Amino acid sequence: MFKVIIVAAVLAILYVIVCILAYQFQEKIVFFPQKLDRNHTFRFRNPYQEMFIVMTDGVKLHGLLFNAKQSKGLIFYLHGNAGSLQSWGEVAPVYLNSGFDVFMLDYRGYGKSEGHIDGEDQLVKDVQKVYDELAARYNESSVIVLGYSLGSGLAAKIAAANAPRKLILQAPYYNLTDIMRHATPFLPTFLLRYKMNTNEALPACKMPLVIFHGDHDEVIPYTQALKLQLLFKPGDTLITLRGMGHNGMTDDDTYKKAIAAILADAPAME
Question: At residue 53, what are phi and psi to the nearest 5 degrees?
Fold first, then answer.
C-alpha cells in the first residue's frame, strides 16, 4: 500500500510539473517561427515590396506586398504558426493571378520581424495596427482578409473589428481551447493563454464568409469547420476539400478553382 501511495505521489508531482511547463513555455508549443537575417533576399517570381511597420512599443514587424498587374484590391493574408514569409510568400501567385495585391505579415519573432510573442492581446493589436496601415492605402471595401490555420482566428478577430469586403478562412478552428481538448485531453484547459475564440468573433462579422477545410485534416479536425458552420449567416459558405490534409491547400486544384471563382466576382478598384 505504501508503494502505491509513493507511486501516486510521484505521478502527481510529475503531472504538476508537466502542467507548469505547458503554461510557462506555451509560446514554444504554439509558435514555430523561422528567423531570417535582416539582409535576407527573397527570390520570388513576382515583384514585391518589403514593409517594416512600427508597433506602439517600437517593435518593427516585417511584411511583403505583392502587386497584381491590374489590381482589384488587396488580400490581407495571415499565415499559420510555423515558418516565415520565406515559404509563405510562395502562395501569393494564386491570388495575384486573380487580380489581387497580396500583403503578408510575419508576426513577432518570425522572419525579419523583431520582438517575440508574449500574449494574445499583443498579437491581435499588432495585426490590427498593420491592418490600419494597409487600410490607409486601400479602400476597405476592396480588402479581403484571409487567414490560414493559426491565422484564421486572427483573421476572424480583425474582420469582426473592421469592415473588409470578405473573410476567407482556411483550415480554421472553433477556438484553441477546443483544439487543446482534442490534442492534449490530459491537460486542463485553464492552462491555455491563447484562446483565439473564432466562434465569438464570427457573429460580429457582417461581411460574407467562406471557409475551406480538408476532410482529412490531421491537425485541425474537419469537425471544427462543421462547428463554425452552425454560426453561419445567410450567404456564408463552407467548401470541403475532399481528401485534403492540413498542409498544401493552396496548391490543391480544387482550391485554386474555387478561390478563383470567389475572387472573380470582386469589382475592380475605382
Answer: -110, 125
